[in-house]
Amino acid sequence: MSKHPRITLVTGGARSGKSALAESIAADHEGGRIYIATAEAWDDEMAQRIGLHRDRRGSDGWRTIEEPHNLAGALARTDGQGVRLVDCLTLWLSNVMAEGQPGPHVRALCRALDAQKSPVVVVTNELGLGIVPENALARRFRDEHGWMNQAVAGIADEVWMAVSGLPLRLKPQRGTP
Amino acid sequence: MSKHPRITLVTGGARSGKSALAESIAADHEGGRIYIATAEAWDDEMAQRIGLHRDRRGSDGWRTIEEPHNLAGALARTDGQGVRLVDCLTLWLSNVMAEGQPGPHVRALCRALDAQKSPVVVVTNELGLGIVPENALARRFRDEHGWMNQAVAGIADEVWMAVSGLPLRLKPQRGTP
Amino acid sequence: MSKHPRITLVTGGARSGKSALAESIAADHEGGRIYIATAEAWDDEMAQRIGLHRDRRGSDGWRTIEEPHNLAGALARTDGQGVRLVDCLTLWLSNVMAEGQPGPHVRALCRALDAQKSPVVVVTNELGLGIVPENALARRFRDEHGWMNQAVAGIADEVWMAVSGLPLRLKPQRGTP
């Protein structure tokens, strides 16, 4: 494994420190830094969350792109300009599923990731570790989200899980079966 | 630890790749392969999930037994016929709790696992890592399920957790206290 | 890392065996043992859970202090009297948030932990790994809880996560980025 992997996935629960971990991994790369935000600030709570992330990241050296839907396109047109930090796949999937079947979009994202020459750090959530949701839509989102995570983790060079702010390495790993 | 442990537990969240991981572990064993399904196809959504699993597994070399309740009996009568893949304990516990106290059934399952001569790969879920459910029945299920997982993990030779499709080894492990 | 770290954090899901793990870590220390319970037995279900924990711990060598709110004070006045087991931060945060902003209380707790001369084993929960709660209060609790966990894990010498009754070491760890 090289010191600077090309595709890194950072997963974890809510408030587990995954964005901060992803930022520290991205900051380890040389050259330009591009933050690809998938969030849409559709209410006050979300606007506040976005503000918190922006404040922590600071403005030095980061350029921000808002891309709630066409992640594959945003990756293609920024390749060669430095490390990209995508935060996060969960909101992106939620945006994409609001408009139809997510499968083709997830496959397009994976092809785009696979084609990148410059590094990408991608943030996602683990959200299938609670009790089965009573809401059918939540169950479907949980399914699609889990399949998306598997697909992206499958092509990533490194995968980390943040737990209580601490990094746990999932890939590459010693002792896999 | 031998290359082929006798009792393997695979846990993980929803859509974390735990069934595929369990299948790859089971496929590593020589001889016959028996799939013990605990699911009852009581609605379309469940029928579809069962179909997905069956399609991935394929038909080559697998014999399927449906046993929603008497897992201990199914293990006893298939011992000596090859590796058994039990998928999954969560649905089994749900079936068992629909009829009364689960404690005696969990203890009978553990005794049956302990008595096996042929290998068994058991799939379960981690479902206690979300917010406390508002529903008292869900809280009770979460409690009983956690105790079941602890009991089975305690007698298993190997325990794996699937996260975003990646295997994380929990037992045996270096660095335990 | 010394054999007996000063501050140990044990996290995990519901019924994951985290209290039993914390007790076994605390029992490894010499001298007096003080159990600091943050639970208030406000209903039958909670009274039963408290009773289960007390029965397992036994009475030999353990002194129990009930402190639902002022954890920093309880740690300060018991320092020098042996190992303290705090069970758990989740209920404490819930008690604290019922009365106002948790931030100052979490910071006071972290300062108190940092100042301890005798060892402390602290139990918390991972609860951000399920689907986003529909309830705004639950989302806020999840956020504050995650930030608390990150703060305490940051100053802890050792952090463990219990999964299906098995310990997974998060800190210190090999292979962190």
TrEMBL record, chains A, B, C:
<dbReference type="GO" id="GO:0009236">
    <property type="term" value="P:cobalamin biosynthetic process"/>
</dbReference>
<feature type="binding site">
    <location>
        <position position="66"/>
    </location>
    <ligand>
        <name>GTP</name>
    </ligand>
</feature>
<dbReference type="GO" id="GO:0043752">
    <property type="term" value="F:adenosylcobinamide kinase activity"/>
</dbReference>
<dbReference type="InterPro" id="IPR003203">
    <property type="entry name" value="CobU/CobP"/>
</dbReference>
<keyword id="KW-0067">ATP-binding</keyword>
<comment type="pathway">
    <text>Cofactor biosynthesis; adenosylcobalamin biosynthesis; adenosylcobalamin from cob(II)yrinate a,c-diamide: step 5/7.</text>
</comment>
<dbReference type="GO" id="GO:0005525">
    <property type="term" value="F:GTP binding"/>
</dbReference>
<protein>
    <recommendedName>
        <fullName>Bifunctional adenosylcobalamin biosynthesis protein</fullName>
        <ecNumber>2.7.1.156</ecNumber>
        <ecNumber>2.7.7.62</ecNumber>
    </recommendedName>
</protein>
<feature type="binding site">
    <location>
        <begin position="12"/>
        <end position="19"/>
    </location>
    <ligand>
        <name>GTP</name>
    </ligand>
</feature>
<dbReference type="InterPro" id="IPR027417">
    <property type="entry name" value="P-loop_NTPase"/>
</dbReference>
<feature type="binding site">
    <location>
        <begin position="37"/>
        <end position="39"/>
    </location>
    <ligand>
        <name>GTP</name>
    </ligand>
</feature>
<comment type="function">
    <text>Catalyzes ATP-dependent phosphorylation of adenosylcobinamide and addition of GMP to adenosylcobinamide phosphate.</text>
</comment>
<comment type="pathway">
    <text>Cofactor biosynthesis; adenosylcobalamin biosynthesis; adenosylcobalamin from cob(II)yrinate a,c-diamide: step 6/7.</text>
</comment>
<keyword id="KW-0342">GTP-binding</keyword>
<feature type="binding site">
    <location>
        <begin position="54"/>
        <end position="57"/>
    </location>
    <ligand>
        <name>GTP</name>
    </ligand>
</feature>
<feature type="active site" description="GMP-histidine intermediate">
    <location>
        <position position="53"/>
    </location>
</feature>
<keyword id="KW-0169">Cobalamin biosynthesis</keyword>
<keyword id="KW-0547">Nucleotide-binding</keyword>
<dbReference type="GO" id="GO:0005524">
    <property type="term" value="F:ATP binding"/>
</dbReference>
<keyword id="KW-0418">Kinase</keyword>
<dbReference type="GO" id="GO:0008820">
    <property type="term" value="F:cobinamide phosphate guanylyltransferase activity"/>
</dbReference>
<keyword id="KW-0548">Nucleotidyltransferase</keyword>
<comment type="similarity">
    <text>Belongs to the CobU/CobP family.</text>
</comment>
<keyword id="KW-0808">Transferase</keyword>
<feature type="binding site">
    <location>
        <position position="87"/>
    </location>
    <ligand>
        <name>GTP</name>
    </ligand>
</feature>
<dbReference type="Pfam" id="PF02283">
    <property type="entry name" value="CobU"/>
</dbReference>
